[in-house]
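[job 0412] stage=complex_fold ligand=zinc ion status=START
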Amino acid sequence: MLDSRIELSVTDRCGWGGGKLAVTFIQDCVECISLRREYSRATTAHIALEGKLRIAALAHDRERVDTLSPQVESAAVSRAAAREAMKAHEQIAHPASGAEEA
Ligand SMILES: [Zn+2]
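[job 0412] stage=complex_fold status=DONE, emitting structure tokens
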């Protein structure tokens, strides 16, 4: 009977502490979902082009490097723009992200 008291004090210490994950995106916001999808698409495209450029560079394919370089640059710009759009929307539509909605 006395043992159960000891058990309780042990399990008390095993609970989740104050560790909390910050959620940047608001799950149900259609705009967030769409912007996130666009950012994800731009990121995938940028990474794919970078990979192609790297292969062309390794193969010393100067012509292909010249063709791909501006494409990689513009993909990087698109990716950054998508990221900015996402951040801008969050600041306007969800100014207190993580906090309760007003
Ligand atoms: Zn949103």
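Residues 26, 29, 31-32, 89, 93-94 surround zinc ion (CB under 6 Å).
[job 0412] exit 0
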